[in-house]
Amino acid sequence: MSEADLQTRIAEKFQALKAAGRPALVTFITAGDPDLATSLEIMKALPEAGADVIELGMPFSDPMADGPAIQAASQRALAAGQTMAKTLQMVREFRATDNDTPVVLMGYYNPIYVYPAEQFVKDAKAAGVDGLIVVDVPPEADDELCIPAMRAGLNFIRLATPTTDDLRLPAVLQNTSGFLYYVSIAGITGTQAPVKERVHRHVARIKQQTDMPIAVGFGIKTGAQARELASGADGIVVGSALVNAIAESLTENGQAGPRTVANVKAIVAELSEALTNGASH
Amino acid sequence: MTTPTAKTPNSYRTGPDEHGHFGIFGGRFVAETLMPLILELEAAYNEAKADPAFQAELADLSAHYAGRPSPLYFAERLTAHFGGAKIYFKRDELNHTGSHKINNCLGQILLAKRMGKTRIIAETGAGQHGVAVATVAARFGLPCTIFMGATDVERQKPNVFRMKLLGAEVRPVTAGRGTLKDAMNEALRDWVANVDDTFYIIGTAAGPHPYPAMVRDFQSVIGQEAKQQILEREGRLPDVLVACIGGGSNAIGLFHPFLDDLDVDIYGVEAGGRGLDVKNGHAASLNGGRPGVLHGNRTYLLQDEEGQILEGHSISAGLDYPGIGPEHAWLKESGRVSYVSATDQEALEAFQLCTKLEGIIPALEPAHALAYAGKIAPGLPKQAIIVMNMCGRGDKDIFAVADHLGMEI
């Protein structure tokens, strides 16, 4: 496995943004939320609204690292009949009109394990996926998924957290590629607000051990927050805020409403503008 | 998905390996935030295990607080009723708090104290583990939060009240269907958000390494005592062991000391619910599930074709967990233990039979084990010996049973 094999759209995107002096806006939505067609429409609208990287959640019945917003999104998607095959099909359809925006699948191990994993990484690559984030597969289990993913040409993006100390960091960094996802709080997605000074300190600490781009996420809701936390990092991840925008736009019986796509686009545009302007100061 | 059948090992008692694997099962599938904690916990447990002072304190509390050793009782009238093998009950329902759960809770709270943790969390299904955790938290003066599915909070009101009396905060979990697996998800979420001060007392022999091994070790006192007691009483080992299986902690506690005694046949009894052929109508992970990864370990799970976890069903709230301890998954594949099932109806009948013939109201969980013991006893010679783990008492179940029997309390 050489570095060249892993020159995915992710690396190209972060390099281009670095040259432009702007942090990446990484946006998360759950595949199939609130239904497959709307979800694909949102996905296609994200780059135009200002998203640089798309994280697409693979819904799971038991999302242990997620807060109420993303739990609910997972349940909406599963209730609407989302499957792994449909998630990969979404990426394929997205790629038909966008061959530039990196797509990262994010989720939990069990749906991949039963797929099974060796086949999953091949199918994901063929569909146009660039990277994977699988929350519950630590470096100790790299042989199971991380190594097969790398062999298939996918970046395996790992989370580093406030509890990842200097001793453990090398293990976390070892097979991580694409970017490192720094989890700004010890907690679940979309809950507490991160403390900016602490995040800056941790990101600076990690930067001493890697040249890989670092994107900061968990608990970022507003443009102002995004701008503050982006300083010193290479990107910002926003998930629960977008997923909440979807939730708030639904009709009484939980179907996509007239503003569902527009609401998500509006937030992404606001975040993107905050990051772009922030970069010019 | 098939897994290779392991060769017959020299010993069935050496697992897990250093990474927490029992064959392909077990492991540590947790989010990065928890990894450092899990590693710290493992180191602390290994140290404590080897420390005579820790073991002495645990033994003292087991004897004088929990009431160990629990008796080994010859169930004479049930034996006569079934007309075959002699049936013995290991009476863990006589422990303080009414089940085997206290064995593990005492061990883990001593470890929490040793690690300097100041807050306890736990998940509970039927409420037996929650009550045991609330009890030891009260005893050691630590604040404690119990996560319990909202559905279970409704159907286990007496235990909810007991936990509250003991000073615990009971947090109903509405995510999912509001049962045990959802409570465990929520406890894990709480733990991730409170990593510095919080100790998570997992109630069954499942979860990320070292929990399955640690819980087994604390529960093995059941099998160690039973072995000594049956040798004193009968001068030989039993022919058969039977225990019910939800997550599998009482069963692994009874089985483990006997695993290398190959003449002892061992049966784990899963919750057959409305029948193994009823889709999502049972909680038999080993008989009706397949390998997957959930709650930090690889094991047999109730799941659909897409790997989404199913809820399962059992008359017993303590058995309707969609997973199973990883050591049981390995013992199934190695063929050392036979995993069978008993239905809701069979458990209900055994519950009534035991109450009427022995004057012992069993919990619905061990009623499953008794139902299976009653199936095999008649086919065994009269001198054969069955030891069954009576792991909990049925006081908590009287409302559910009355409901099923159409009786009013």
What features would you describe in this structure?
The complex is a heterodimer of chains A (281) and B (409). Chain A has a single domain, classed as TIM Barrel (Alpha-Beta Barrel), CATH 3.20.20. Chain A is built from 12 helices and 9 strands. Chain A has helices at 9-20, 36-49, 68-79, 84-97, 109-113, 117-127, 146-151, 169-174, 196-207, 223-230, 240-249, 260-280, and strands spanning 24-30, 53-57, 103-107, 131-134, 155-156, 159-160, 180-183, 214-217, 235-238. The longest helix of chain A has 21 residues, at 260-280. The mean pLDDT of chain A is 94. By secondary structure, chain B is of the alpha/beta class. Chain B has 2 domains: 21-61 and 101-215, Rossmann fold; 67-99 and 220-405, Rossmann fold, CATH 3.40.50.1100. Chain B is 42% helix and 18% strand. Chain B has helices spanning 35-49, 52-66, 76-82, 101-114, 128-140, 150-155, 157-165, 180-193, 211-219, 221-234, 249-255, 285-288, 326-334, 344-358, 364-376, 398-405, and strands at 21-22, 25-29, 72-74, 86-90, 119-124, 144-149, 169-173, 198-200, 240-245, 265-273, 290-294, 296-301, 338-343, 385-389. In chain B, helix 4 (101-114) packs parallel to helix 5 (128-140) and helix 9 (211-219) crosses helix 11. Chain B is globular. The chains are: A alpha/beta (281), B alpha/beta (409). The A-B interface holds A 60-65, 67-68, 71, 78, 83-84, 108-116, 135-138, 140-141, 158-165, 168, 172, 183, 185-188, 191-192 and B 1, 19, 27-37, 175-176, 181-182, 185, 188-189, 192-196, 290-296, 298, 301, 303, 305-309.
> How many strands in all of chain B?
14
Shape of chain A: globular
What's the count of strands of chain A? 9
Cα shape of chain B: globular
Q: Low-confidence parts of chain A lasting 5 or more residues at pLDDT below 50?
A: none
Distance from first to last alpha carbon of chain A? 40 Å
Largest sheet data of chain B: 6 strands, mixed
Structural class of chain A: alpha/beta
Fill in the CATH topology of the largest domain in chain B. Rossmann fold
Q: What is the fold named in CATH at topology level of chain A?
A: TIM Barrel
What is the number of independent domains of chain B?
2
> How many domains, in number, for the residues of chain A?
1
Treating each run of at least 4 consecutive H or I residues as one helix, how many helices of chain B?
16
How does the helix and strand content of chain B classify structurally? alpha/beta
Portion of residues within helices of chain B = 40-55%
